[in-house]
Amino acid sequence: MSETFLKAQTEARARAWEAAKALLDNAAAEKRDLTAEEQVQFDRINADLDERAAAIDNIRKIEEREAKAAELSRGLEIATPKSDSDLLRAIARGEVRGHNFEARTLVPNSNLVPTGFFDQVWMRAREVGPMLRVGNILNTASGEDIVFPTLTAYSSAGLVAAGGTIAESEPTFSSVTIGSYKYSFLVPVSEELLVDSGVSLEAELAKAGGNSIGFAVNTALTTGTGSSQPNGVVTAASSAVTGTAAAGAPTGDDIINLYYSLDGAVRAATNFAFMANATTISSIRKLKDTTGQYLFQPALAAGTPDTLLGRPLVENPAMASGTSAKSILAGDWDAYRVRVAGGLQVAQSADYQFNLGVVNYRFQIRVDGDLLDTTAIKFYKGATA
Hints:
The protein has helices at about 1-30, 35-75, 85-90, 115-130, 130-135, 190-195, 200-225, 235, 250-260, 265, 280-285, and strands at about 100, 135-140, 145-155, 170-180, 180-190, 240, 270-275, 295, 305-310, 310-315, 325-330, 335-350, 360-370, 375-380. By secondary structure, the chain is α+β, with helices and mostly antiparallel strands. The relative contact order is 0.15.
């Protein structure tokens, strides 16, 4: 655009100068000075020449400054931050090899703060993976082992007479080490989807990534053995009640006994909840107390959980059910620590499945979990026959 403007100004200035010269040449040919009218015309042409010269000079100076700025910034990365959506498309185009998406602090009830890609994935993962909803989440930048001290016995107080000797009674401690295990998977995306700016690539990848993370990580945090994988809550929890009913189904008394096997402080905890899979919950819904009231109560408002004995009941598809199965958990879920290390790493490859016109996004996340207090969550186990 500047070149077009400069050309127009230069041509107009040349025409004006020709007009000025014509006035002078005409007066010279007639061997006279400019008339009053010609002088006014000549002055107007001169003013026009000066204005166009100044405009041309300003454009030249601007171009010189832009050229110098471009030279100085050549080879440097532009500092302007990109949105998560821009980063995902840049990864797809190969402009960025990969990116580490980290958790973003969210402002509740605010539509002015954008939800980061990590948080979109994580919210979807929490929907399909209840352990990511009820567990005590710890986000760390790196993945080295963390040792959590745990109290196994309190000091014992005793009655001491006046002047009597106070006996020593030290609390005893143990520890739980939580590391980070890598979970990785591929999300194939068609090239058509990548180039279609009308499609929310961020939303599509968040949905696919969240589902994969939610199912895989939730299973590990629920039933993991603790050997080269998270120590699942079912593995770590303490035994409380073994049922006697056929097919491992719980009775109303079993539920009540499980609830009261826990310490009063645990039962009063804000994050107390029962957990079971859909099959077990189906059986629980049929149970009544001695007055004929159902132990289960459905939620009456959106966003609130169903309840069992007045406490939240969480459905977890990774739980087992039936004969000899640890089918119900109850306790304070703040005691189960879930550690997420280093955020969510996303990279792409256009080579794999090139013949299918597909770009594969590789998601990687490092997670571990363990129960810091084994008495805080206990399980009901179905009868053996």
